Amino acid sequence: MSKDDLKEKCTSVMSKKRRHDEDVDALHGLTQTFPQVIKTFSHGDLHMITEYYKPFLTYVIEHDIMRILENLVTKHILTTDEAKSFKAKEESEGQAAVEVFISDLMKMDSIVLVRLWEALAEEISRFPSPNLSKILMEVTERGPELLTGIEASLKSPPIDAHIKDLRDLHRVGVLQPTRPLEDQGSHGYPHTTAMGSESGYTELMVNDGYIRTYSERYHELVKIGNDDAEPVEKRTNEKCDQVWMKQLFRRSPGSDTTPHIVVVSGVAGIGKTTIVQKIMLDWARGTQYQRFAFVFLFKFREFNLLDMETDRQMSLTRLIGRHYKYLGDPKLREILQKPESLLFIFDGLDEYKHKLDFKQEQLCTNPDDPFPVHILVTSLVSQALLKGCSVLITSRPTALEMLDMQRVDYFAEILGFFPEQRLIYFKKFFGDTDLGTEAFRYVEDNTTVYTMCFNPSYCWMICSALKSHFMTPKELRGTTPRTVTEVFVMFIHNILSNYKQEAEDQRGILVKLGKMAYYGVENRTLVFYDKFEMSTFGLQLVLSSPFLKEILERESSLDHTTYTFKHLTLQEFMAACSFYLDPSGDIEELFVKMDTCKDGRFVIFTQFLVGLTRPSVLKTLGGILGELERKTEKRVLEWVKKKAEKILWSTDANDDQLIVCQWLYETRNENLIREVIGKDLKLDFSHRGLSHLECDLMNSVIGCCGELEELDLSYTLLTPEFFRRLAPCLICCRSINLTDYAVSSECCSALSSILSDENSRLTELKLFEDPLEYSGVAKLCEGLRSTNCKLEKLRLCYCFFTSECCSVLSSVLSSPHSRLTELWLDYNDLEVSEVDQLCEGLKSKNCKIKKLSLVQCDLTPGCLTALSSVLSSPHSQMTELDLSANRSSDSGVTELCEGLKSENCKLETLSLSGSLASECCPALCSVLSCPHASLTKLDLSSNKLEDLGVNQLCEGLRSENCKLEKLSLVSCHLPSGCCSYLSSALSAPHSRLTELQLDYNDLQDSGVDQLCERLRSENCKLQKLRLGSCSLTSGCCSALSLVLSAPHSHLTELALNNNELEDSGVDQLCVGLRNENCKLQKLG
Fold first, then answer.
1. What is the per-residue burial (b if ≥16 Cβ within 10 Å, else e) of 31-62?
2. pLDDT at 446 over 80
């Protein structure tokens, strides 16, 4: 990052701070005014306002329950004991307890509600929820107008008596097919509860306008680790507010408009359909959504059946009548006359075979006109049809690209269970607090399984899988599942065991089920119809088998019965099982499909296919189903090894590398992992980072090998928790790259612990553009001084050094245990005093530094004096020094050269590019001709040496003491006359130059001609010559061709790029290239 970029960043930060200060002032004024206004409302009005905003208030109270309770105790609304009692209830029941708490306060006197609102207003400075501030503003400024709006939003629309009778009939019709949302006992375990209940649906968290990118929604189970619970919860607290189901079509605080088009997104099994069922149920009961006279629910999967009919087009009136046969045409047309009182719900966009085309020129405007159903849906969303009606669409994130999100008024994403909700779920499921807590603590310690618990469906499956284990006495328990595959195996094993006496030929049924599941995975089919897939795969005759109801969900509608797996991932697991249950499956054909598929449909299927190779897994399933196909196991392991090696050793597949690590983790096959990973693997996770789940995967896989060549985590914002979590993997790495704000000073303690670990293999650490400052560098140096530290190469470039940093680094260099041999401190501004401190360590007899880079450190001549003393120190081992792009000036170089001429100096490579002039050349010449000097490589690029400087330099190059082999004079303002001096140096009998770089100098053809005269000399040893961008034409090519064909020429590499040689020049070069004496291997 340049200084201008840094200045721009600082300006941005200051601007944000000013805006923050303005916001704080505005909130302060609001909190002063609000308490006066809230006291003016009557008890009834206060009750109405509190009830209306209860969902938002619940969210705020739950976020900082202790402070609010303390506030209410201070205001004498609660006693200390009452506050403690409620806090205990909130810890065990969560959000539900907060709702009850607010409802209890609403039953008390007005002063109690006033004090509650005052406490919430005071809370806003600590928890600046965007919705809370808007609510307080609305209540303060809108007063009576707000009350009128609330009353209007809660009232049912006025309708005629005969329409009212029809609405009541519709309510009854909705109630009958609505799936019961009551808790049911789990088969075989009466004390446990199957949590698919009315009270168990997940509330929504909405991030206004936030829609996941395609990469984020690629596959839900793959990506769940990327949004760990804690970061998501933090993001939600900062940017989102909890949205309850009843709020979806309510005006948001601070908004003047009511949403009409709402989209609810969520991964498979998160609870979208349950929410839809709850909306229908509450509307039919008259408890919610009463602003709508009629609510119509349609499932996209049912629309797929219309493709099989002769007439695929139908009107909206016919579509409604088809689903709700008791709504006749005349009355239905009258209902549709008031679109503002209608809600259309379309569930499961991801299950629809057609795309919604919002660019369609011809939309439907009349409910009686026939159109394809996808155009009817598009017309409703676009408000071309029944303008003013409300529409709710649910979808998995993978199908959101079908929607024109600009037409959506409100987008909500179901994020699932946060950690507290997961524990509550476990307690409720097991029906025994202690048992549920024990199971939860086990799962919490297993990141792979715990991360899945964000999803209520996964949570139910995990609880179902673990219930038999944790309900068994501890001394009789077997091994608990560690991988996703093991969880699903235990889930299926429990089902089969529970129904063993009630079903015949379980294996045969599972083979058929697995083949249908695989058909669904391959063809992206989630819904299976009784007269089609179920019949094709021979499942119609065995649907009465009791255990299938634990795996499949059945739904009857229209003229068909449909089946889906309890969860999409369960379908993928059953599909993988089919290849182990039935030897007739063509495993080779499967590998070809998996290798060629690019859209991710086989990702989770592959994970299960690989996970099932584990012997203990096969034994568990084989114990109840009979021996499984071992040939499949062998071939899958062979395929995994080949595929994994190809992906892991690729240079541009970091996401795929993580998928492979997941496969290897699922196998838990240590021999396979060691063969695939080896010891020289480099993994690149730059620009993406690693989640908690992925950290655990890496720890397991890399820890199995004990060694990794390199791990690149650059361009990723990392935390101390990340380093602590990934420590087992980082300890195994030989090189770690943490470039560009990846590490803060707070992370350095964790990084220091890794360096000082006795098992650490870390020999190279790269930190570039990381804001370490003194505190970070000091912590890092603690680890560097450890006797266990094996670090040899350290980059601390652009790390915002302060004056004390060089002092602590010096203590590391002089430490007897230090193994550092290479140190880069580029792009840190260092003063003379700081360089002096650093040099004290460099002169220590314990210092082993051989390479030091101080590029663009704003060094002055005084700094080079200190470095000169290091070079002449008897203990110095330095062989390479880079001082490019500094303010060292010619006088500073003269001081440096005194050290270079010392008999103690061992320096072989010196870089001084930038900021020098010809005045430095006499001093450099004296170094080159010094008998003690050991320089073999000198870089003087981008210095204004000109004719005079090169002439002086060449005196040293001609010396018999000169040992220089590589010289760079790129962009040194050299005219053509310089070439005669260089030519004489090249042909000197003592010359050792093998590489000369002269790019970006105005040498012209005349200069190259002079150079070529001596390039043909038998004394010339030059092998590499660069003449790029030297203003050359075809006129120099004849001379160059003679060099190539000269018998004494050693040239193997010649660069002539960015010159105007033309075809004639190239033709002349080719004459030399064809000569038998030509040794050129590379021409550029």
1. beebeeebeebeeebbebbbebbbbbbbbbbb
2. yes
Q: How far is CA 562 from the centre of its chain?
A: 36
Q: What pLDDT score was predicted for residue 682? A: 87
Give the number of other CB atoms < 10 A from CB of residue 626.
10
Our CA angle for 298, 301, 302, nearest 5°, is 60
* Amino acid letter for position 659: I
The tokens for 355 are 């795309």
Read off the tokens for 388.
Answer: 């003013």
For 331, other C-beta atoms within 10 Å of its C-beta total: 15
| Contact criterion met (CB below 8 Å) for 693 and 448 | yes
* Cα dihedral across residues 412, 415, 417, 421: positive or negative: negative
What span, in angstroms and rounded, lies between the C-alpha atoms of 296 and 320?
A: 8
Lowest mean pLDDT among 332-346, 647-661, 978-992: 647-661
Q: What is the 3-state secondary structure (H, E, C) of 248-267?
A: CCCCCCCCCCCCCEEEEECC
Nearest to 315 by CA among 336, 297, 339, 300: 336
Tokens 């010891």 -> residue: 679
| pLDDT tens, position by position, 172-225 | 888 876 544 444 334 444 334 444 444 444 455 545 444 444 334 444 544 444
Over residues 424-441, mean pLDDT = 88
Q: Which amino acid is at 385?
A: L
Contact 1005, 1036 (CB under 8 A): yes
Distance CA 463, CA 186 (A): 11
Q: Which two tokens stand for residue 166?
A: 């029809």
Burial of 361 (0-12, 13-18, 19+ CB in 10 A): exposed
Q: Which residue has the tokens 């129904």?
A: 499
Q: Which amino acid is at 159?
A: I
Structure tokens at 950: 């090169």
> Helices 373-381 and 316-323 sit at what angle, rounded to 10 degrees?
110
- For the stretch 26-75, pLDDT in tens is 566 677 788 888 888 988 889 888 888 888 888 778 777 888 888 889 88
Contact 719, 234 (CB under 8 A): no
968: region left, alpha or beta (phi > 0 left; psi from -120 to 50 alpha): beta
What is the dihedral sign for C-alpha 958, 962, 966, 972? negative
Q: By percentage, how much of the chain surpasses pLDDT 70? A: 90
Burial of 548 per CB tally in 10 Å (0-12, 13-18, 19+)? buried
Q: What is the largest CA-CA distance in the chain?
A: 115
Give dist(CA 996, CA 940) in Å, integer. Answer: 11
Instruction: Give the 3-state DSSP-derived string for 22-53, with helices as H, strands as E and coil as C.
Output: HHHHHHHHHHHHHHHHHCCCCHHHHHHHHHHC
Q: Write the DSSP string, 993-1010.
A: --EEE--SS--HHHHHHH
**What gap in Å lies between CA 889 and CA 920, rounded to an integer?**
8
Contacts of 382 (CB under 8 A, 6+ apart): 358, 363, 407
8 A C-beta contact, residue 963 and residue 992: yes
Does 280 have pLDDT greater than 70?
Answer: yes
Residues 791 and 781: their CA atoms lie apart, in Å, by 11
DSSP E strand stretches across 460-577 = 528-529, 552-557, 560-565
Q: How far apart are CA 551 and CA 537, in angstroms?
A: 16
Q: Distance between CA 648 and CA 489 in Å, rounded? A: 28
Nearest-5° angle of CA 501, CA 503, CA 509?
A: 145
Q: For residue 667, what are the contacts with CB-CB under 8 A and spacing of at least 6?
A: 610, 611, 613, 614, 637, 640, 673
Q: CB-based burial of residue 559 (10 Å sphere; 0-12 exposed, 13-18 middle, 19+ buried)?
A: exposed
* Total residues found in the chain within this entry: 1084
Report the C-alpha gap between 404 and 358 in whole angstroms. Answer: 7
CA distance 773 to 770: 9
Which amino acid, 549?
K
